[in-house]
Design goal:
mainly alpha; single chain; about 5% strand; 3-stranded antiparallel sheet; 3 domains
Length: about 400
């Protein structure tokens, strides 16, 4: 008869640990159930948190993509909801996941759990990939005994992030194609057509039109010093990145972004979409409202909007009701304040958070469409100037060629 270490949930709230003696892990699991606990993991004594534990292994360097997180979270939720223990679920995912990254990730989590860690503790080294909010919500789900439900909410949240990312990509395709075409035309004219035209018409260097000369010299410089140019651009971007990290610069940039029409609405609703979605998931997972607000405000990158979210947390911490806190901070649009107020009065705050998130997503869609429609004419004007420049330069070249002939 062996000795087994167990982790279990008591009364769907408290996480408890202990030892039972049994012939097998299955028998140990049944004994834990007889104690009135819901088993979260059964481990042999060699893998417990006693002095006989093996050393914790380092996590492999895995950078999980958003699609990997969606796949892992949805698969783990499905297995846990079927009554399978976290360790067995992770072993199943490591064996059958179509993604190699997810399989390695699940295998590593399983190793840590065998060494006595909880699921959230095993995830801690992956905070860069998963995010602190993801891990914090998993920890809350473990402690409350509702990990499967929490993972279901997290799956929906990740899918929303994926849909939002797809909108960004879709919005950027058109301007990217136009810019590539314009750059290609400049290189074609400046690097091939104009020099060839000069050669065929035997135009002397001093007779080359000014506009054409600028274009030819620019393309020639890029062709000969492209490495220096790449290093210069890289250094400039690195310097900008460092300066953005400075508090005053970042705050000034945040304020500038919010002063631009159309872009302001897009940034604000984007921030609020993340904020309300995380607030909904955290609150429904059993996280206290003040802690839920703290988790949600960490999703906001714009300093000005984040300050408003911080004010909400402070007002609530002082005893203000949530609707009043949102009103004083000016974080939410007025039309959504009534939803929050109704949720507080009826005790359906989680449902109202979800409705607010859905309402903000609709406003975000409208803001993205408005930004795209405003951006397209601007791009067309820029492209028009570029085409006009090439046309004028070509006409000057043509006139110069006629002059040499006559």
């Amino acid at each position: 008869m062996g000795k087994y270490f167990y982790r279990a949930v008591k009364d769907k709230k408290e996480l408890v640990t202990g030892y039972v003696e049994a012939e097998s892990a299955i028998e140990a699991k049944e004994k834990v159930k007889l104690l009135g606990f819901a088993p979260a993991g059964i481990y042999e004594e060699d893998f417990s948190t006693s002095g006989k534990t093996e050393k914790r292994t380092k996590s492999p360097g895995i950078n999980l993509k958003l699609s990997d997180k969606i796949s892992f979270t949805s698969e783990l939720q499905m297995l846990l909801s079927s009554g399978i223990s976290p360790l067995e679920s992770l072993e199943t995912i490591s064996l059958h996941s179509p993604s190699k990254r997810v399989a390695i990730f699940a295998e590593d989590l399983g190793k840590k759990i065998r060494q006595g860690a909880t699921l959230s503790e095993a995830m801690a080294p992956y905070s860069d990939s998963l995010g602190n909010i993801y891990i914090a919500l998993c920890k809350t789900g473990e402690e409350s005994g509702s990990l499967s439900t929490t993972l279901s909410y997290l799956t929906d949240l990740l899918k929303k992030q994926d849909a939002l990312k797809a909108k960004y990509i879709q919005m950027s395709i058109y301007p990217t194609v136009l810019v590539i075409v314009m750059v290609g035309m400049f290189f074609l004219f400046g690097g091939f057509l104009f020099p060839r035209f000069i050669e065929i018409c035997n135009i002397s260097p001093e007779d080359v039109p000014f506009m054409a000369k600028i274009l030819i010299d620019s393309v020639s410089f890029i062709q000969h010093y492209w490495l220096l140019l790449v290093l210069g651009i890289g250094g400039l971007l690195y310097g900008i990145n460092l300066s953005v990290g400075l508090k005053n610069v970042k705050r000034g940039l945040s304020s500038f972004v919010l002063s631009i029409p159309k872009l302001c609405d897009c940034v604000r609703y984007m921030s609020l979409s993340h904020y309300m979605s995380v607030l909904h998931v955290a609150y429904e997972s059993g996280v206290p409202i003040v802690k839920s607000l703290d988790l949600a405000e960490n999703t906001i990158s714009n300093d000005i909007i984040k300050d408003e979210a911080v004010q909400v947390s402070k007002y609530v911490d002082k005893g203000e009701n949530l609707a009043e806190a949102f009103y004083k901070s000016n974080l939410l649009p007025g039309v959504l304040l009534s939803l929050v107020s109704t949720g507080e009065k009826t005790g359906k705050l989680g449902l109202m958070f979800r409705d607010c998130a859905l309402g903000i997503e609709k406003k975000l869609d409208a803001a993205i469409d408005a930004l795209s429609k405003a951006f397209e004419p601007t791009l067309l004007v820029i492209i028009g100037f570029g085409v006009a420049y090439l046309a004028i330069a070509f006409m000057q070249m043509y006139a110069g060629a006629l002059g040499t002939i006559m």
